[in-house]
Amino acid sequence: MIDPVSIGLAVAGAKTAVNMIREAINVGHDIASMTKELGSFFTAQGEVEAAAKEAEAIRKDPKRNKEKSATAIAMDCVLRAEELRAAEQELRDMFALQGKLDMYKRMCGIRANIIESRQQEIRDQNKIEQQKVKKKEARINAIKDFFLSIFAAVVIYLLFVGCVYLAVTMVIYMHEILSFFRHAFPELYR
User: Fold this and answer.
1) pLDDT 10s digits, 5-17
2) Is 66 helix (H, G, I), strand (E, B) or coil?
3) Beta-carbon neighbour count of residue 21 at 10 Å?
4) Is the separation of the CB atoms in 33 and 20 below 8 Å?
5) Tell me: the pLDDT tens digits for 61-89?
6) Cα distance between residue 93 and residue 100, in whole Å
């Protein structure tokens, strides 16, 4: 669930990480040695991006879009994303100032690949779940068809047995039936 306080804290954490990196660079540290600060920045960025995706899902879902004003959710996400974009631009500039822009670009490329592989994994998992649901529905339909076939066979068998029974009964009692008609309507048989 989107929590504006958590999103605000994530953005604040990202800004703090950028400030710490800037201060460390000012005292002579190498930006590449600040993996913890870089990690916290990109973690916060991921949280805000996930919140933006959830806001979009809420906006599209008529059952959930009454939870909070869609405009408020969108505005909050846009503002936070803009703050992070500015912070990331500052971070990129710090890499460039230290002559490590190619490192930043490789990192962004790897990040894009990781994001894509995670999204592909989610798509694959959803596909597997859908296939499981389809198999379950197919199994249920097969069971229904099986029992319907058995029911139809039993009904046809009972109709056949009933017809045979009626025919045999009529043959067995035909003599008595004809006798009855002969006595009831003698003028027809003279």
Assistant:
1) 667 777 787 888 8
2) coil
3) 21
4) no
5) 666 656 566 667 677 777 877 888 888 88
6) 10
